[in-house]
Amino acid sequence: MSLYFEELDYRPTPIGTLSLTRRRDMALGVDVFEIKLGDDYLMSSLFTASERALANLGLANPIKTGLDVVVGGLGLGYTAQTVLEHETVKSLIVVEALDAVIDWHETALLPLGPVLTSDSRCKFVHGDFFALAASQSGFDQDLPERRFDAILVDIDHSPDLLLHPNSASFYRPEGLRSLAAHLHPGGVFGLWSNDRPDDAFTRRLADVFDDARAESVVFYNPLQNQDFTQTVYLARTAPSRMTVSG
């Protein structure tokens, strides 16, 4: 019989104290894993619908196979796991700023750790996603300036509610243009948000990308006994123009 509650790890980080806990939800009959930064809940295994939707929506209707994907933010691993469920995916780089989170997966302290670490397509990168997005070299240290078919991000609570003010420039036009430069023509940028769709941010995406939209993700919250709405923003770069000679 598992304990009702246990703190699995507790570490100081540059942005605050990070903790990983496991508790038994007796009503649902499941173990719930939660990550907190200080007193702020970052993520819970009880709510994963929008994290999975980020991957499924971002990889829907691909224009080719053999996709190269970046996920910004490892967390509990649900977005990365869902990416790997797509047979069209050839490679996945997961960028995570907190080394503790990578350790929790690599030591199987989190349930999805063995799934991710055993898949040869998946590689963890310990680094600042936002700094890499703003750089010319990009996300792959072995292949500078490598481009990707999809970049999916789940780090901040929303474009306006940030974990650290240093990421603010990422959500501005210049930051979005830098991100778009790391995508292939026709590539997809996907962004998770805890808030409902923001028309102003969708318009900002549309000013940078060839196409942009916001998808509401509605799921049932058993703790509040009501539906809850989060958002996945999706933006695509312009497809390449192929010249056909006759």
CATH homologous superfamily designation: Vaccinia Virus protein VP39
- Kindly report the average pLDDT value: 93
Oligomer: single chain
Fill in the CATH topology. Rossmann fold
From the spread of the alpha carbons, the general shape counts as globular
User: What proportion of the residues form beta strands (DSSP E)?
Assistant: 35-45%
Q: What is the number of helices?
A: 7
Class of secondary structure makeup: alpha/beta
- Helix content percent band: 10-25%
CATH architecture: 3-Layer(aba) Sandwich
Strand order of the largest sheet: 7-6-5-8-9-11-10
Quick recap of the structure?
By secondary structure, this protein is α/β, with parallel strands linked by helices. It is built from seven helices and eleven strands. Helix 6 (about 175-180) packs across helix 7 (about 200-210).
